[in-house]
Write a structure and sequence with these properties.
By secondary structure, the protein is an alpha+beta fold. It has one domain (2-21, 47-149): Nuclear Transport Factor 2, Chain: A (Roll). The chain has helices at residues 2-19, 55-69, 80-85, 88-98; strands at residues 106-114, 119-126, 132-139, 145-149. Strands 1-2-3-4 form a four-stranded antiparallel sheet. It starts with a helix and ends in a 6-residue tail after the last strand. Residues 31-51 are annotated as: Disordered.
Amino acid sequence: MLGRTKLRYAFVGCFVAFLFGTSTPGSAQPQGVPSPLVSISPRPLPSSQPATLEPKQIRLVRRVYAELRAGKSDATLFDARMNELLDPTSLASIKASLAPYGTPSVITSTSEEITPTYKLVDYTFEFSRGRSLSIRFSFDPNGKIGALFFPENFH
């Protein structure tokens, strides 16, 4: 099941990257910048603590969701590559996809993987009427968001 989930996120990551106009596979990537499409480390280092949300992370994730839902993004929260990808067309597409969900009532962290160059955290957003949405965030060592991975049925 876990392998299937990782495969799904890899596929969705590729799709999102393709949709938002990333460079072609194999193109030069600045040194030290992880590609959101591939894992740099075959064996992620486990977190020393269970995946829990700190109040600061809750506010950040909730803020990013609210901004994306409004079709906006705060450039200070994302790394340079994500700021390039979050152009007006991409933001409009994400806004349209998030519109049916509304405002989340609960946000939980469901898993966390830490590598030497980035941290992946899966967040589940719960909404009224039993709806939920999982979004994977990739954070660089400076806490900037380097990638967002939406589920394959997200459109």
